[in-house]
């Protein structure tokens, strides 16, 4: 009787080598996922912050932003780390970014207000119409403006009908209000795309891009500026009250994080 032992050994060895290769590939893939099955960079940052290991905590939160996405919690915690490291401008920058993601974030609002009071930062003017903007409207302001315009046109059509004049007038007024709010929100959103924050503790706002140029006023950390132009290491900016001047580009940072 013939034995099939050599053939079985060959087949078994072949499948075992294939199985081992696939297992190694899966293990490599799992290891490349980093903290999926272990401690996430965000949780690592929280643990390091509690231990007052601020530089490693900052690095962990930055990894969290890169791997886990931009979230208000990560931005807020990163701000607390920078505050602990003696960088109030950097802390306020992160709290501003947290508020861009969640305008009602209570912790970011409280921390930002306290820092502005401590540093005597130039406050931003109150805009009552921003409080009327619904959540989720960011990036959709032009559609709101268009909807208001179309609603106004529909109301004008109703005004031509003798039996629908009251409804037409109400529709026109509602459409005009929505269109005006949409326009205000759209202009604000466009300006916010070029907004920056003073990172240095105090800088001089000058009339021209040079140190000997006339000083317009001093700006403390956390002051918001709209970027207009850049030239030779200087940035031309506009303050909330419309005053225009120049500051060193290295002393400010855009609110929109670099991609």
Pick out its properties.
single chain, alpha+beta, SH3 type barrels, 3 domains, five-stranded antiparallel β-sheet, two-stranded antiparallel sheet, globular
> What form results from the Cα inertia axes?
globular
CATH superfamily of the largest domain: Tetratricopeptide repeat domain
CATH topology of the largest domain: Serine Threonine Protein Phosphatase 5, Tetratricopeptide repeat
CATH architecture descriptor text of the largest domain: Alpha Horseshoe
Order of helices and strands: HHHHHHHHEEEEEEE
What share of residues is helical?
40-55%
Q: How large is the radius of gyration?
A: 28 Å
Q: How many discrete structural domains?
A: 3
- Total strands: 7
> Could you tell me the mean pLDDT?
83
Please give the CATH class of the largest domain: Mainly Alpha
Oligomer: single chain
**Beta-strand proportion:** 5-15%
Strand line-up across the major sheet? 6-5-4-1-7
Broad structural category:
alpha+beta
Q: Give the end-to-end Cα distance, rounded to a whole number of Å.
A: 72 Å
Sheet with the most strands, sense and barrel status: 5 strands, antiparallel
What does this structure look like?
- The protein is an alpha+beta fold and 259 residues long.
- It folds into 3 domains: 41-118, Tetratricopeptide repeat domain (Serine Threonine Protein Phosphatase 5, Tetratricopeptide repeat); 129-192; 195-254, SH3 type barrels.
- The protein is 54% helix and 14% strand.
- It is built from 8 helices and 7 strands.
- The strands form 2 sheets. A 5-stranded antiparallel sheet has the order 6-5-4-1-7.
- Strand 4 (224-231) and strand 5 (234-238) form a beta hairpin.
- Helix 2 (41-50) runs antiparallel to helix 3, helix 5 packs antiparallel against helix 6 (106-119) and helix 7 (141-159) packs antiparallel against helix 8.
- It is globular, with a radius of gyration of 28 Å.
- The chain starts with a helix and ends in a 5-residue tail after the last strand.
- Residues 1-12 have low confidence and may be disordered.
